[in-house]
């Protein structure tokens, strides 16, 4: 490809709405173009990166034994209602009706569709296990699309689904996919970590996220400094050294506490540590058909993890904080909520295990400008108890007792053991080896193909632009003619360009009638791994070769250039 003919227009500045470095650089380097909020076109350079990522994903998935399919984006609501996700998925599901008023969704994922295929086509255990995958555009109506390709409303995803008759077979394929993902992300040049995660609206019991570690990441990852334990903040646990207080329990007492709206206010008023207080927050099921409320109690120096609460109470949908209208409906006093004397059958009380070990603590009484002191768990009723707190940096690892540290991560992949969540709801059965009906067990494995582009840049850039890993760079080598009017420079550049093309090196020729400095800046902005410059050294039969990542420059004999390039690119 010749840059003089390429659809490439670079920019010195990024639009103001671009927040993270990958978004800024992809816009400046003419890789993507915004059409609407969270919706982007892939321009030629960006599309080449996307296709290279897709090819790596496809090669490794094929190598793993998975088979590629292509399923419809448009999915009938009946399938989603059958699985129970039409309501549970929430407002991120893009819903619509056709001219006959039939309901459809634009697929954010394809569990329902692939389960429908398999239940109608596979009848015997002899046809299993099976893993079907696709690379396709997905849609999610994000409330706040941001960060370019990292959180959009339309994106490219690889999703795979495996089907089994035994848990052992499912476990085996899960590990196969975990290894496959590690191979994919390694080939893409990413620094990543597999972390324990929550399954969210997809469901399932065993799940890992693959996180690219980067400061711009949206997710907090807690990891151990002594072993391989890692989990996202929603899932992370810590080894707590809770010990029952040896204090003698006192009698509860109501005290006036004007203007004490927060835990910190209460602690300051009584001159006690926040660990001697109990905070209460009330959550409700978002998008649920019936109002279900949960009061979460936790020691004042901890934060409630709403995902853990959801899993503990086995809620069908996500939980969210109640609003002022709910407060009034439930006769609760904002800022002074508490469980003592609460007589409301619609509210279940969920207590963190940290509270079990406390005595004589302070908590809200559901009365403005007042608090209870010397409270104990015998003073109120609760429905269940468990770990509902957010693990924190500096706490002990739940596996080895090492110290937990925190980093930011970008999720680029997620694998799940779904079990029978979808197959049971959708009656996906086969005859087992004994001739009896057996419910299929499923696995689900997703990769954010377009998100990998952003993640790679977040880990590989400098003040001059992108530094693409070789395997996913739009072109591996940029041959630059400093002076297009110099016939010798043009001749040597043309020869080098043709030589590399003939040996399957992915090369582009910068033959534009522009200043040399302009071309060098473009090459660094776009992020070509190698620049070959046919400058003054051609008089000696040599060219200048510059490595984008290290910045090192070497003068190389033209006769040995091909071997040098191959060796440098790892070919």
UniProtKB/TrEMBL annotation:
Alphabetized GO MF terms: aminoacyl-tRNA deacylase activity; ATP binding; proline-tRNA ligase activity
Compartment(s) where it occurs, according to its Swiss-Prot or TrEMBL record: Cytoplasm
One family name in Pfam for this protein: tRNA-synt_2b
Gene Ontology terms describing biological process: prolyl-tRNA aminoacylation
Enzyme class, first EC level, given as a word: ligase
EC numbers on record: 6.1.1.15
Protein name as annotated: Proline--tRNA ligase
């Amino acid at each position: 490809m010749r840059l003089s003919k390429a659809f490439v227009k670079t920019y010195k500045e990024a639009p103001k709405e671009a927040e993270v470095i990958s978004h800024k650089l992809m816009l400046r380097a003419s890789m993507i173009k915004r059409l609407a909020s969270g919706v982007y076109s892939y321009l030629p350079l960006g599309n080449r990166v996307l296709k290279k990522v897709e090819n790596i994903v496809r090669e490794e998935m094929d190598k793993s034994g998975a088979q590629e399919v292509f399923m419809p984006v448009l999915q009938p609501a009946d399938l989603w209602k059958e699985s129970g996700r039409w309501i549970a998925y929430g407002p991120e599901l893009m819903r619509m009706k056709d001219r006959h008023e039939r309901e459809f969704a634009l697929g954010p994922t394809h569990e329902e569709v692939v389960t429908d295929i398999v239940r109608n086509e596979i009848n015997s255990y002899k046809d299993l296990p099976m893993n079907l995958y696709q690379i396709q555009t997905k849609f999610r109506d994000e409330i706040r699309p941001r960060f370019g390709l990292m959180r959009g409303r339309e994106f490219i995803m690889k999703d795979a689904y495996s089907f089994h008759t035994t848990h052992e077979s499912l476990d085996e394929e899960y590990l196969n996919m975990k290894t496959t993902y590690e191979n994919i992300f390694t080939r893409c040049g990413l620094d990543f970590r597999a972390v324990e995660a929550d399954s969210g609206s997809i469901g399932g019991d065993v799940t890992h996220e693959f996180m690219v570690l980067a400061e711009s990441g949206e997710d907090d990852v807690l990891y151990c400094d002594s072993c391989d334990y890692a989990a996202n903040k929603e899932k992370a646990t810590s080894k707590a050294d809770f010990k029952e207080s040896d204090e003698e329990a006192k009698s509860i007492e109501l005290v006036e506490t004007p203007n004490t709206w927060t835990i910190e206010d209460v602690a300051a008023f009584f001159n006690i540590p926040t660990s001697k207080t109990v905070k209460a927050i009330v959550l409700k099921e978002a998008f649920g058909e019936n109002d279900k409320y949960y009061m979460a109690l936790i020691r004042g120096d901890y934060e409630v993890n709403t995902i853990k609460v959801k899993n503990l109470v086995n809620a069908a949908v996500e939980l969210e904080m109640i609003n002022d209208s709910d407060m009034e409906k439930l006769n609760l006093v904002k800022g002074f909520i508490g469980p003592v004397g609460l007589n409301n059958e619609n509210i279940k009380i969920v207590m963190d295990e940290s509270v079990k070990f406390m005595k004589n603590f302070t908590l809200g009484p559901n009365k403005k400008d007042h608090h209870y002191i010397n409270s104990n768990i015998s003073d109120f009723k609760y429905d269940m108890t468990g770990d509902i707190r957010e693990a924190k940096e500096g706490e002990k690892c739940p596996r080895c007792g090492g110290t937990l540290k925190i980093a930011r991560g970008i999720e680029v992949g997620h694998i799940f053991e779904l079990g029978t969540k979808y197959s049971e709801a959708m009656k996906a059965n086969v005859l087992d080896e004994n001739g009896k009906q057996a419910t299929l067990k499923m696995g689900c494995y997703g990769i954010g193909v377009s998100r990998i582009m952003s993640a790679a840049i977040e880990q590989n850039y400098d003040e001059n632009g992108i530094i693409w890993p070789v395997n996913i760079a739009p072109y591996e080598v940029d041959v630059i003619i400093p002076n297009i009017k110099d016939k010798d420079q043009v001749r040597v550049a043309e020869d080098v360009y043709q030589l590399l093309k003939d040996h399957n090196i992915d090369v582009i020729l910068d033959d534009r009638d522009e200043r040399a400095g302009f071309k060098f800046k473009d090459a660094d902005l776009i992020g070509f791994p190698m620049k070959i410059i046919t400058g003054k050294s051609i008089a000696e039969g040599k060219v200048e070769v510059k490595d984008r990542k290290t910045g090192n420059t070497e003068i190389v004999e033209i006769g040995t250039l091909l071997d040098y390039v191959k060796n440098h690119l790892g070919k």
